[in-house]
Amino acid sequence: MTVSQIYCHSRNTRIIKAISGKLKRDNNLDYEPNQIIVSNGAKQSLFNLFQAVIDDGDEVIIPAPYWVTYPELVVYSGGVPVIIDTDEKSGFKITPEQLKNAITPNTKMLILTSPSNPTGCVYSKEELVEISKVLKGTDILVASDEMYEKLVFGTNFVSTASISDDMFQRTITINGLSKSVAMTGWRFGYLASPNKELIAAMDKLQSQSTSNVNSITQKAAIIALNGEVDDEIEQMRKAFEGRANKAVELLNSIDGISVLKPQGAFYLFVNIKDVSDNSIEFCKELLKETGVAVVPGVGFGSEGYFRFSFATNMTTIQDGIRRIKKFVEKG
Questions:
Q1: Mean of pLDDT values over 127-138
Q2: For 210, 211, 215, 283, which has the most beta carbons within 10 A of its beta carbon?
Q3: How many angstroms separate the most distant Cα atoms in the chain?
Q4: Which residue has better confidence, 79 or 213?
């Protein structure tokens, strides 16, 4: 029986070493082996985290627009989502004042996503420093979802935990390979925290549910984590940036809608407030009449927008936007 056909350890030494090396090389973060856990996708990492730390009534601050899973997992774990609304004026990023006003004695965690799904916003080092000042002196944890870190445009990615020792101690870094090396269906995510007890608790939970990531994925992941495909990732990043620039240009030429240029990921969060106050109906009619599928902004916690993915070829992007233009301008 070969290794790929048998159960393998959920804490594969080579995988943990590769993750540790990646976090040090790319993010200047130092983690010991027992401060890292590997899961079946970053979504499971988040599930394990919320189940391990959130008690009934705990409040979790979530900036909107948000990835759809965050509030659902918080509620499932007994917590209370506290939504902070953002818009184009702030680049879809929370301000220190908003964060300060949202904190209560029941606040357990802040979720940060950079780069963001669905907006493509990226928090700068300076912005993260200001957030860290608000959190200093509290026991609030930070769940930092950094899944799209390799896909940034015209800016530098900064890992939240790298800001200061205080932020390192409170931050749980979540990442994976679905976006950086397009391994979505392979299901490989990981989480790092200096809190060894927290990692051990999540490991116990995972051992009773899914156990290890499949061995084939583990072997493939080592190559990606060791930086052996970084040149290919950069080619992909450049292609996404070119698509983003063209899509922004074309969408902003349509009367009644507008979109900010993203700093990362592969989505545009398109403002349709001047043409519709119901993003679900807008997206349903758009799909029915043109065959173009976009996601209603209300699903991400922000009405009056839709999410447009440019994770496809340029021809399809241009044709899709041509159909959107015709749909919007017909009234």
A1: 98
A2: 283
A3: 64
A4: 79
